Amino acid sequence: MGAMRADQMKHLAHAGRWWEVAAAASNARIDDPELLLPAAEAWARLGIPALATETLDRLCQAFPAATQHPGVAACRGLINGVVGTAVEAETLHERIAAVVSALGERAIDLSAEAERWRRDNLRTTVYIAQDGNAVRRRENGSIELIGNHKGASNTLIKQHGTALSGSAAPITIEGIDPPWLALDMVSATATEGYAPGIRIVQADAAELLDGLSLAGPEAVRDLIAQDRVQWFVGPSAAADLARAIEGEPGVSHNGPVVPLATLRTRVGPALAAAMQSASRRHDAEHVACLKTICERDRSRSIDTRVRAVAGDQPRVALIAGRFTTVLRPMIEDLAREFEARGASTRIITEPNDHRRLTPLGYSRVFAEFDPDLIVCANHTRDDADALLGERVMPRNVPWVTWVQDAMPHLLRSKAGCSIGPADLAIGHITPTMRADLGYEASRSISVPMVASEAKFSTARVDPTLAGDLECEIAAFTNHSETPEAMRARLIDEVSSSPAAAAIVERISDAALALAEEPIERVRGWRRCEAMVNESASSTDAETRENLFQNVAFRVYDRACRHRALGWARDVAERNSWRLAIYGKGWDAHAIFAQHARGTLEHGTPICTAYASARVTLDATVLTSLHQRVAECVLAGGLPSVLATGSSIEHARWAIKQQVLSSSTDLGTPTPGLPGQIAIPLYRVDGGERFTKLGSLLNGRSYPYVFADPAESASLLPPGVINADEAVGLLELGVWDAPSLERVVRCAADPAWRDAQRERVLRFVRENCTHSVLARRIIDHYASIDAAGTVAA
Question: Which of 388, 632, 651, 658 could be a cystine partner for 724, CB 3.0 to 4.6 Å?
Answer without folding.
Answer: 651
